Amino acid sequence: MTRLLHIIASPRDEASHSNTLAKAYLETRRKVDPGVTVDTIHLWHAKLPEFDGDKAAAKMTFFGVGSMDDTRQSAWDQIVDITERFRQADEYVFAVPMWNGGVPYKLKQYIDLITQPGLLFGFDPERGYFGLLENKRATVFYTAGVFAPGVESKYGEDFHSTYLNWWLKTIGVNDIDAVRLQPSLLTADPAGDQAAAVKRAENLASTRFQ
Predict the structure, then answer these.
(1) Peptide bond into 183 cis (omega under 30)
(2) How far is it, in rounded angstroms, from Cα 94 to Cα 103?
(3) What is the pLDDT of residues 12-41, one digit of tens each?
(4) Taking a C-beta distance cutoff of 8 angstroms, is the pair 17, 97 a contact?
(5) Closest of 141, 144, 148 to residue 102, by C-alpha
(6) pLDDT-derived band of residue 3, with 50, 70 and 90 as boundaries?
(7) Is 192 left (phi over 0), alpha (psi -120 to 50) or beta?
(8) What pLDDT is stored for residue 52 in this prediction?
(9) How far is CA 204 from CA 1, 4, 95, 102, in A?
(10) H or E element at residue 37
(11) Nearest Cα to 106, choosing from 19, 45, 181?
């Protein structure tokens, strides 16, 4: 049985293009593999904790800075609980609109919470950073109102897919697919472009997991 974690980074629910693409993918994914289990984290409803001083201090103990006292351990246990839900998944589906050239801040907060030494990555001076996840795959649905790959910089820069690809590979997720609807606004046929992107999402699920 495949455990799939669906991570929603858009607050717009039904009006969101990225959510529409992810839902189309998941509907087809369930048809192809009825045994898949889907766990959804809507980051705007998840009440994510702050990565405060106690959590940061607990993290630094893994690099030999300070010691893990009761307060820091309690803070760290909260991080472990959140991260374990991510670690248990076999597959990740992200719905990620572009915000100001990058990812929405709720997704960045989530990434900053779970990307911890000994949980998602390791480090040594010779090897550098290395991912601790193995045999995972990710599918990411990228949308943007104006930006599109290859456009002039006056229409935006991509710190969106480049950042998320870097992060996924840093934690050990190297099997990555992406479907883009970019742009969604600066186009002669918004409805047609969305329909084509939905079809690409459905085809990805049906062909990859037959």
Answers:
(1) yes
(2) 11
(3) 988 899 999 999 999 999 999 999 999 999
(4) yes
(5) 144
(6) very high
(7) alpha
(8) 75
(9) 19, 15, 15, 24
(10) strand 37-42
(11) 45
Taking the C-alpha atoms of residue 4 and residue 20, their distance in angstroms, rounded to an integer, is 17
Tell me what the mean pLDDT of segment 95-124 comes to: 95
Measured CA to CA, the distance from residue 125 to residue 50 in angstroms comes to 29
Name the token pair of 179: 């479907």
Residue 184 has pLDDT above 80, yes or no: yes
Residues 174-198 have a mean pLDDT of: 95
- The label of the residue with tokens 């590979």 reads 169
- d(Cα 134, Cα 125) in Å, to the nearest integer? 22
Residue 153 binned pLDDT confidence (cut-offs 50, 70, 90): very high
Render 158-207 in DSSP notation, one character per residue. --SHHHHHHHHHHTT--EEEEEEE--SSSSS-HHHHHHHHHHHHHHHHHH
Write out the two tokens for 77: 């246990």
